[in-house]
Design goal:
alpha+beta; two-stranded antiparallel ribbon; two-stranded antiparallel sheet; 2 helices
Length: about 80
């Protein structure tokens, strides 16, 4: 069993293989964005997770703090339809 987690959206999924867990995360993230858009709360949710709106770049996910002051940039599949503010 493999687990996939993205702190940028506070989502987790799992799968029997690494590829299945990643594929399930892609689908979960897409459903997250679609549902948030349908409910007209995407901006509020992203801001609550630490995302920043940057003109000409769209929504930028937060860096994930790691031990020793390091950080990790999280790539999240953001549908192009959410790049309006």
């Amino acid at each position: 069993m493999y687990v996939s987690f993205t702190p940028a959206l506070d989502l987790s999924t799992c799968g029997d293989t690494k590829d299945e867990a990643i594929q399930n995360m892609d689908e979960a993230a897409k459903l997250f964005f679609e549902t948030a858009e349908e409910r007209d709360c995407l901006q509020e949710l992203l801001e609550s997770f630490g995302w920043k709106w940057v003109e000409n770049d769209g929504w930028i996910p937060p860096s994930v703090p790691l031990p020793n002051g390091l950080s990790l940039k999280v790539n999240v599949p953001v549908p192009t339809s959410v790049f309006s503010h």
